[in-house]
Amino acid sequence: MDQAHDFLRECRAVEALIAPLGPEDFGRTTGFKSWTIDQILRHLHVWNHAAQLSLTDEDAFRSWMTVATQSIGGGSMPDFEEQWLEGASGQPLFDIWREAFPKVAESFAEADPSQRVPWVGPGMSARSSITARLMETWAHSQAIYDELGIERENGDHIRNIVVLGFNTYGWTFANRKMDVPEPRPQLVLTAPSGEIWTYGKEAGEEKIEGLAEQFCQVVTQTRNTADTELVVTGPNAKHWMNIAQCFAGPPNDPPNPGLRKMRV
Fold first, then answer.
1. Which of 16, 50, 72, 176 has the most CB atoms around its CB within 10 Å?
2. Exposed, middle or buried by CB within 10 Å (0-12, 13-18, 19+), for 21?
3. How many CB atoms lie within 10 A of CB 119?
4. How far apart are the first and last CA of the chain?
5. Burial zone of 255 (CB within 10 Å; 0-12 exposed, 13-18 middle, 19+ buried)
């Protein structure tokens, strides 16, 4: 699956970003819910592990998920992840994460893309599962780039996130128990390479135009739409961008304008 190779590529970029950090840097607080770099790495590793388990051993995944759900329900996700990793932090945690992600990529690269795998909510295809891991890695690492004041260089593999964002238009509203407004806005986005990506049919005034990476930032909630240069026209498009969420779980509100941004 191309998506497995894209996941690996994104992980390698994050690996290069973090490798130069000193021991004190892993405790730095980012703009994402005040999570530290340690907490972001734990989160990525734990759910990479869960995704691989769901692919290779469904029964073991369900047992693991039962424990995880109970633990998170009685505390918080970062607390569970820290407990599960026995408090690993700093360089040892970084080593755990970077030793594991190539194995996750390899497992999915060899899998049948249409294989059904269980997850926190509804099951999904193996292709969708590794695409979600790519999206999570890209989204959560944005907080690290921002904290370090480094402008990330995106590749066209973020097209996977664009497609995920576009495909979760209806789910964004249904997840909030809202009627799904029609027509769905058309996307006309400029890829990092300069190519123009168009998704959806022409829908009158309903359209979102701009940089693909900024659309990805909005649907992953790493930026408020107001902090981008996206041109959003039409009531459906504006409503969507105000609540967009391409990841699983209960409804999450996007950050307030100016909250998640690069440290200067």
1. 50
2. middle
3. 17
4. 38
5. middle
Among 163, 172, 197, 169, which residue's Cα sits nearest to residue 183? 169
Q: What is the pLDDT of residue 74?
A: 87
Q: Given this model, what pLDDT does residue 264 score?
A: 75
Task: Indicate whether this model's pTM tops 0.90.
Answer: yes
Mean pLDDT for the stretch of residues 81-86: 97
Structure-token pair, residue 21: 């950090």
Instruction: Specify burial of residue 71 (Cβ count, 10 A radius: 0-12, 13-18, 19+).
Output: middle
Q: How many CA atoms lie within 13 A of 44 on its CB side?
A: 35
Per-residue pLDDT for 130 more than 80?
A: yes
Among 101, 132, 102, which residue's Cα sits nearest to residue 117? 132
What 3-state DSSP class applies to 185?
Answer: coil
